Every structure is written in structure tokens, then in C-alpha cells.
Amino acid sequence: MPFVYAYRFFLFFIVVIQSLSHNVFAQYSYTEPRSLHIRKANSPILIDGLPDDEPWQFCTPVGQFIQQFPFDTAQASSQTSVRITYDDKAIYILAECYNAKPGKYVVESMKRDFSPKNNDCFLVLIDPFDDKINGFTFGVNAYGAQREGLIEYGGNFDANLRWDNKWFSAVKRLPEKWIVEMKIPFKTIRYKYGLSNWSINFVRSDVATNELSVWNRVPLNFNYASLAYTGRLIWDMPPRKPGVNISLIPYAIGGLNHDYIKDETRWIYNGGGDAKIAITPSLNLDITGNPDFSQVDVDQQVTNLTRFSLFFPEQRQFFLENSDLFARFGFSKIRPFFSRRIGLHNGEPVPIFAGLRLSGKIHKKIRIGAMNVQTGASSIVNVEAQNYSVAALQWQAFGRSNIGFIFVNRQGFEGWRISSADYNRVVGIDYDLQSKNNKWIGKFFFHHSISPQNNFNALAHASFVRYSDRKWSIMWNHEYVGKNYNAETGFVPRQTIYDGQQNIWVKQSYWRIEPMIEYSFFPKSKSVYRITPGVYNSLYADSVFYPTDAITSLYVGIQLYNTMYFSFGYNELFTRLQFPIDPSGTGSKVLPVGNYDYREAVFSFKSDLRKRFTFNVSGAVGSFFNGLKLSYGLTLNYRIQPWGNLGITFSRDEIWNPEPYDDIHLMLLSPRMEFTFRKNIFWTTFVQYNEQIQNLNINSRFQWRFLPMSDLFVVYTDNFNTVDFSSKSRGVIIKIVYWLTI
Length: 742
Prior knowledge:
A hairpin with a 7-residue loop joins strand 5 (121-127) and strand 6 (135-141). The protein has a domain at 31-235: Sandwich (Immunoglobulin-like). It has 742 residues and is mainly β. The protein contains 3 helices and 42 strands. The protein has a 26-stranded antiparallel sheet that branches.
């Protein structure tokens, strides 16, 4: 059978990669990590931002931070001294951040989950399993705003900041330095009991000197959060189990919504909650009952000139912890599991009765995840009740690499009976490659779907490898999705094409080949930091490898020491339309089937991020199918330090088509106001004027964090038609969430 042969080939391929990882991938120069000993505090510590508590006097400080940017071989000009200790309940960190250039501190605002590049801040990266793959990050800026997140994929990308949890901090600002004191409860993080060596690193951002420094050296060509380059945290005795660790998170919601099109008024009221139960210090059980999955924050809209669906990230609390364990399978556009499929049907909400989710580590090298969610029937969208189950296993092998297995099941019901003809399943195996020095990363997977019919060619496979060092970045990627691959609880937008003449969606097999090569120059200049030219190609083809979409890009990026950035590029594009389509998505006259070659020149510019007023400019000019296109965008932001931000994002697409086709003019305008009156009181107003979908949306949200992780939200929304500015809908919602830890 094709599935069996493909599976055997996949296992053989992993053996080959394993052999390479002990030869090619193992050849590198590695600096011995620094070590830090942590000892138990002999008396209580008050979190007030001052170093005068007795336990700090007995802690040996560590310093000698090294630059990560702009150079990774020089000592930091703005040095940092760190002390760390613990008691039975928490880890304590004290950092004294000295200023090389005394003056006003730079922060975006007091808003949570700030960007380290735009803020004077201090971060700690913690890998409690010492596996160099997953961990936690906690940070504080110079005015006391907090930032926490989950480190995934070895820290090659920024942390998952949608994860929130309880911890405490305080800041004191002095003329020559600022001091941050942090308390991270053991109940907040997940760790393996009995492990006396953890991985840790400290990061300091000093915006005035445009310097990012680290305690343990991280090469500049990698993300500062790379867990491959953490130091060692050595405990005098392994931390104890935190005892009973249960968090109860009830919520209540009430509000009113009026639909002006239907002239209907609907009262909104609901209640329910979540529970987080630590089975072990490293294994967590999440339970949800009658959850409210409405988002108090709105998705940011974009103008979509592609023929395919866009991806919006998950923001719902129940799915966030250890989310990478489920979401990392496959690629960004070949996902066997996408949690936003649960509780939604064609964009409309479906009631969710309850859900269970078990996730975490059962061994230093083994992570597991199991999820089950039951939804109810909905007469509004004409859908029966569904049960969603996901099981994932990840085994760390060959150093920092791992092998993962996933099983996804959607089971339909007829009333309250299981339907024998309404189900969809996906099984898959993934191999994630990460060399010890992080220069080689990659992914290889094979997935197969199982449905009531059409199970031949119901597979997807791909390979991705990237090599990065100080000067070179070389990437290769291939993808294949079979016509009958059916990931109904996933996200595979490229597989389905809309046939407007017959008003049906058509599934097709496709291949993708995607190579890229970049080279970085570091000129001897006082203003230019790095120049990076590159070549990129992405080719999509059908089952017989006849091209359907392609882009070839030549580009160069120029990065300055003052944080300014320029880029210029030239793109050659090709599209084979298999069905007549209106690529603008506005209902204009459709283009005929055929091959279209077109090209464009692109540019972008980012201003100095250290200034209170910043702006980004981008543009593209060239042809577009059978017409001409000019696209341009502008983002402006003014920082009212430290209490707020005023910003506006503007984009415009001008498409001029020959007769008899209509010219298209699309604008997206998004003003945004963010004010932080105190560290726990926030007000955000976000307006989105979108001509493509003819909608003007106003979302104004007030948030009061009256206790750690406990919030009161008041959200006002309004929608108008952009043609005549008539009202579509208007509503206000009040939501209260309380986080109780036992």
C-alpha cells in the first residue's frame, strides 16, 4: 500500500538524517556555557525593587554581559548585575541595570507583552528541563510593565506571548541605573521534579545605546532567545514539588447587541470557567466548562489579493499552554490541526459544552498531549454536534532534535448518536531537526488522512532544511499535498480552489519547491551595520508538476546602527488561473482562464525605533495579471511615554485594468489609540476601515486588572457599511474573569 511504503521511506530518511547529525551537523565550534549556582534564601524577600533584603547580601552577583547586537564578541557598554535565589514557593531574581548613557528611559508604554527591541528592559529565559527546546521567558521594562511567554522551537523565533500567568515584579529607577526585582512562583512554570541542572540566560536591552546584551553568549545570527546558547543554573538542591497547584478561572459575561440589517436586538449573557490542575510539576490538565471563546481583542485585518484564505493565530486561553505540542506538526500552510476550527463553522460560532486537555512532560525527553472537546449542534449554521480529539507524542532524539506523532479525530453525531459516515482523521509523523549549535534546523513530515471515502492519495509530506551562520543563510523546502488529503480540523488553504462558474470548491494535488540563499556583509562603516542581498524562489505546481504559481525575488536589505532599515527588491511572478476569478475579491468582472506573467519592484523603510515618533513606509509598483498595480503603505506611531501610543496604519492598492475590466481601488485604514493609566488599567480603541469587505469596525476596550490575572473588560463594538456609512451592528459587552490559585 502507498501509505506503508511512504512510512518505511520516512523512517529510512530519519536514519539518514541521524547519521548526518553525528557527522556534518556535529562539526562546529562551541563555547562552554557559563554556570550560575542558586542557593536557598534564609529569610523572606519583599518585592519592592530594592536590593536591601538580607538574602540578596548572601547571593554572589553575576555580570560581564556580552553584546548580542551589534557585535557578539564585545563586552556590553551598559552592564548588568544579576542575583538569583529561591525559597519553597518561588524563584527570585534581582537585576541592577547600569546606564552607559544616563538620561530618560525608552519604553513604548505600560502595556503588557512589550517588544524588547523598543524598550529598555530586562528578560530572563528559563529552560527547566534542560532540553534546549522549550522554556519560559519573563521580562520587565524600565517602567515596570511585564512580559511573559512560552519559548518554543528552541527559541529560534520570538516567544508565544499569548500565554499569561501569575508572577510578580517591581522596579526602581535611579540616575545611574534601574533595578528590577522578580518573583516567579514554582506553580507558574512547569519543571521536572528532581532535576538539579536547568538552562538559563539573562537578556538586557538598552535602547539609548542600541545594544542588546546577554549573560551567556548568543551569536548575532540567531535570536537572542535561542535555547541552544543558554548557561547552566545549578541548584544546591533540586526544587521541591510545589504541592497542590490548581487554578480556577470562572468568568461571567453580559451585554447587548443590535443587528440593524435584521433589526434584531439580542441580549448576551453567559457564565462558565476553566480549571488548570498540575498533575505533576511538568504535566498539566486543563478543563473547560461552558467556555466563552469570544475574543475581547479583535483580529487585525489585511487586504487579501491572493486566492486563498488567511491565517489568524489562536488567542483563546484554553488552547495556549503547550500549544506548540499540537500546533507545530506540519508547516504553516499544511497544518493537520488548527484549534480555531473548534467552536467555529464557516466563521459562525458553535456552542462548546466542555473540553479536557492534558499536556506536558512525563520524562525529560518525552512530551505528551491529549485533547478532547465536545461541541453542540447549531441550527443557525446547520451543523450537528461534533467531538474533537487530538493526541500528540514528542520524543527528543539526536541531541536537540525530536520525533513527533499526532492523531487528530473529528467525529460527527446524528442527534446524540455517533455517525458512522461523518468522521475525519489524520495520522502523522514529524521529525524536527535542530543541531546543537543551531546552525542547522529543519523539519520532515508525512501525514495521512482517513475519511469515509477517497483515501487514495490522501497524504501530505514535506522537507525543510536551513543552514545559518554569521554570513550565510541557505534554505530548501519541498511540499506535497495529495488531492484527497482531508484535514478538516487543520489548515491547508492551497489545496482548495474556488470555481466561480459552478460555485463549488475544487480540491487538487499540489507540489511546492522553495529555495532561498542570503549573504550578509558587515562593512567597516560607522553608519551601515549590515547589507544582506538574497535570492528567493517559490514554485507551486499541480500533480504532474505543471506550474500554477511562482515568484522569483532578488532583494537587498540594509540595516543601520541607528536601527533604520531599508530594503529593495524585484519580483518576477507567474499565475495559471484554472478557473475564472476576480483576484481583487470585490465582485468585479472575472479574469479568464490562462497563464499570466507579471512583475513588480518593491521597497520598504523603517525609521529609528528609538525615537518617540516612528514610521514605516512600503510600496510596490508593476503589473498585476492583465493590468497595472501600485501598492503603498504607511505606519505612523507616536509614543506618549510611558502612558500610551497613538498610531495609524494605512495601505492602498491601485489596480488599473484594460477594458472591459474595472479599475480597482482598495484602502485599509486603521487608527489605534492605546493608553495605560496605571500598570493595571488599559484602554485601547482600534478602528479598521476596509474597502475590500466594505466594513468600518470600531472596537474600544477598557481593561482593569484588579488582581493578578483577574480582569474586568468593557468592550464596545460598532460596524458600518463603507458605501453609505449605514449601521450594520452595534454592541457592548462586560466580561469579568477571576483567577484563583489554590
